[in-house]
Amino acid sequence: MEIRKVGVLGCGLMGSGIAQVCAQAGYETVVREIDQKFIDKGFGVIEKNLSRAVEKGRMSSEEKESTWSRLKGTLSLEDLKDCDLIIEAVVEDLKVKNELFSQLDKLCPERTIFASNTSSLTIMAMAASTQRQDRFCGLHFFNPVPVMKLVEVVKTIATSQDTIDTCFDFCRKIGKIPILAKDNSGFIVNLLLVPYLLDAIRALEQGVASIEDIDNGMKLGCNHPMGPLTLLDFVGLDTTYNIANIMFEEYREKRYAPPPLLRKMVLAGYYGRKSGKGFYDYTGEKPVPMDLGL
Ligand code: CAA
Ligand code: NAD
Predict the structure, then answer these.
(1) Is the CB of residue 136 less than 8 Å from the CB of residue 123?
(2) Which of 48, 217, 252, 271 has its CA 20 to 30 A from that of 23?
């Protein structure tokens, strides 16, 4: 099946990046949000990314213009009804996701493939809210989407091979490298990454070292591009908290349990970069480690 028009649900950290790479690759792309201010914010990030690409000579001004001509923001789900593929990237909350999928299931024609960018929910838990379980899969992108090459394509027990083949082809067309994952909570990457990130918070809680030294340890000792606490701020502590709860619920293993410090930080509104404060304070010229009273 040929994909011509892509719908994206959510224009946050991930949705804006997904919309950008789809439009850049030549797909007509429509992004749905719940408030115009989120579209403006996400489109602002896309504008910055595209301008930088032009400045760096990776994209011509004409390509930038034509990318914009393919991008549309909307508050109406109706505008996604003629999409061939819909990629969901809203908050990590099963109820919110399923409400959208069941509404769209009624609006969209049979051919439309539904995909979720969830970090931790099983795809089947969402596919079950629709009548198109064979045309439902996971498309798990990585943050920042315009830079990260990987997409995990997730096949449930009900996803058709046709859907998987179409999605592999689509991922390659948007310049990504797809890998096939089974429908286990966390798929491949988060199954391994999430316990590591949570362990870094536990190390901080236990007084193993300071925020900066934990980050420098993994950056300089293992050549990671970012230390785990910086990466947590980058992913979003609110999102990580939801992911940990979902994975703990699924596996009942201590290593997925959200540490108390993470919960307290989310309660305090310290969501990481997106809110200005997390393990670091981003409100000044450069990030400064937060005093978390430890
Ligand atoms: N959006 C778009 N482009 C970005 C960007 C962003 N948020 N951040 C950086 N870039 C671009 C920069 O513009 C720069 O491009 P140029 O070639 O034009 O200079 C390039 O990336 C490199 O950036 P920097 O030189 O500023 O910094 P860097 O070399 O440290 O790279 C990084 C930045 C790519 C983010 C790197 O630090 C990195 O790879 N960090 C780890 C990211 C990671 O692990 N992501 C996975 C998170 S987990 C996940 O996504 C799954 C989940 O379900 C939670
Ligand atoms: P985010 O908080 O930056 O953005 C979520 C957006 O969804 C918000 O702008 C919100 O207004 C919007 N939204 C909420 N309800 C909506 C609805 N009914 N219709 C349309 N939009 C709605 O979150 P994010 O980091 O972009 O995460 C989105 C999804 O991607 C989550 O499932 C998350 O687990 C997954 N994910 C996140 C990362 C990451 O590093 N942050 C990486 C991979 C996957």
Answers:
(1) yes
(2) 271
